[in-house]
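User: Some background: our group keeps a shared notebook of sequences we're curious about, and every so often someone picks one and asks for a predicted structure to add to the entry. Today it's my turn. The entry only has the sequence so far, pasted here. Could you supply the structure so I can complete it?
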Amino acid sequence: MKSVAVYADSDLNYFDTAAFAKHTLTDWQTLASVMDHTLLRPDVSEAQLMQHCLDAVHFGFASVMVPPCWVSLAYSVLGSTPVVTGSVVAFPQGSALMTTKRGEAEDLLRVGAHELDMVANVGALKSGNRNLFQQDIHAVVEVAHNAGARVKAILETCLLTLEEKILASELAIAAGADFLKTSTGYAGGGATVQDVSLLRGVAGSRCEVKASGGVRTLADARQMLEAGASRIGSSACVSIVRELGAR
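Assistant: Of course. Here's the predicted structure to add to the notebook entry:
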């Protein structure tokens, strides 16, 4: 598919949401290429993880998102394929020490992760500590970018006011995050059309937007793309692309 950059104008800080969504929904292969095939349940078995990775290769998803303990195994399956191995940092609460987050990121990168979805320090934001919120994200971004990997900052939008969502987005972008991500799905709420649209409005073409949490059907994915998402995270990726004709 066309890269996200084709739909972004950095000089104007503009992202052509309508054109991106229309193209992405053209066929199931193109949709699959912007989906993170997610398996983050605490009871994941080795057999389930292997099948998850094989499904990702078969359908051509952008990445798999797996628990940290399974990154090495996932990378052993995916390392020679176009599918990126991804994992989570400080998931799902985001309240780990900054040094702990940085260390976890370093460990994940060493064993094969190339995309890191890190949970931001929401408590710091709500306490008015902007510096800590931004530095916390930057600590992970720094080690990831040094390794050629990308970072999605999970803002947990269901816990934030409108003003906090805007501020969190600006601080995450300033910290160097490659994506603004809505949710973990574990805090009582997931992605909404309104939040995705807001994050895209703040981000423009400066970074990507990932909708995650509660995206279970093709209709859900369509709504998120039309609101401004450039990546979809879901544990239902297979059923979603099958709705669009995949076998």
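Suggested note for the entry: The first strand starts at residue 8 and ends at 9. The chain has eleven helices and ten strands.
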